[in-house]
Amino acid sequence: MLTREAPVRVAVLCSRRAPGLLHLLQAQQRDAMPFEIVCAVTSEPDLAGADAIAAQGVPVVKHGIADFYGARGSKVYRDFHTRRVYDRATTDLLNGFRPDLVLLDGYLYLLTRPMLEQFRNRILNLHFSDLTIRRADHRPAYVGIRAVRDAIADGQHETSATVHLVNDEPDGGAPVVRSWAYPVSPLVSRARHWDATDMLKAYAYAHQEWMIRDASGPLLDAALRLVADGRVDLDELGASDPARIMPWLVDEQGRMTPPDAMRIHELLRGYKRASA
Predict the structure, then answer these.
(1) Shortest CA distance to 38 belongs to which of 88, 121, 101?
(2) DSSP code of residue 171
(3) What are the mean pLDDT values of the chain's consecutive 10-residue runs (276 residues total)?
(4) Are 18 and 49 in contact (CB under 8 A)?
(5) Dihedral pair phi/psi, residue 51, rounded to 5°
(6) Residue 90 and residue 95: Cα distance in Å, rounded?
(7) How many CA atoms lie within 13 A of 156 on its CB side?
(8) 20 to 30 Å CA-CA from 104: which of 9, 73, 93, 145?
(9) How many CB atoms lie within 10 A of CB 87?
């Protein structure tokens, strides 16, 4: 467990955008927080909002993955040996800011062993699906960058976002906190009836943007508070079966409901659905 009298130092690792980061920084300016954002390291040459982030006093460091691979004559999505070398360089960069936690916020690449070992049980990821939905093998049902589209295509009536602990399985670590629900529009069933795949893709994009713009800040704020003030023990989560972990719930007003109360809520919701 993180036990610090000073605010927990959080390094952000991102790519083209860092959803919710400005929300955190603005909240940090207004109130005394149990955490402090100490840097934003981006894998891309252009980060949306980089000037606004820097204006809040947070260093923005470019660690271009394409240039890193290009200098070695390699392809980003095919060469995981180079990815491990890149991740080792990432750990060196992050260590310069002495982080207690690493937050993946809009980061587009799988982490490899150097990062996972250097920051074991200290990496959180913002993911846009409900990671409590599991398949028969107990793996999360909706992973990766197309999770929202996949959930909608599967006929899910609502979606939610999750902040989870990172392990060596894509989006497979224990959930820490989950957002309120985002209902799927009836338009989807009509688009299916018309076999309008272009409409489905456009809707999935808009639905995901809704979630990204609306939930990211409050959800990240809640996750960092829970970890920083000791209500969530990441070492305990790292030793647990992720499929058995119930996250805290954040509502639209930023209020947090603990897991025990959430279990009762889920049971009642299941009962209401069965009775409908």
Answers:
(1) 101
(2) T
(3) 79 98 91 93 97 96 96 89 97 97 97 97 98 95 96 96 96 97 96 94 97 97 96 96 96 92 57 51
(4) yes
(5) -65, -40
(6) 9
(7) 21
(8) 73
(9) 22
The C-alpha atoms of residue 201 and residue 187 are separated, in whole angstroms, by 12
d(CA 151, CA 141) in angstroms, rounded, equals 8
Paired tokens of 120: 């074991």
What are the structural domain ranges in the chain?
8-275
- pTM comes to 0.92
The C-alpha atoms of residue 57 and residue 25 are separated, in whole angstroms, by: 9
Phi, psi of 56 (to 5 degrees): -85, 5
Helix 21-30 crosses helix 197-228 at what angle (to 10 degrees)? Answer: 30
Assign domain 8-275 to a CATH class.
alpha beta
Q: Which amino acid is at 248?
A: W
Least Cα distance to 177 among 246, 261, 260, 129 occurs for 246
The Cα 215–Cα 202 span in angstroms is: 20
77-122 confidence digits (pLDDT tens): 888 899 999 999 999 999 999 999 999 999 999 999 999 999 999 9
Provide the token pair at 245: 């972990």
Task: Kindly give the pairing relationship between strand 8-14 and strand 101-104.
Answer: parallel
Separation of alpha carbons 16 and 44, rounded Å? 6
For residue 157, count other CB atoms closer than 10 A to its CB: 13
Pairing type for strands 35-42 and 8-14 reads parallel
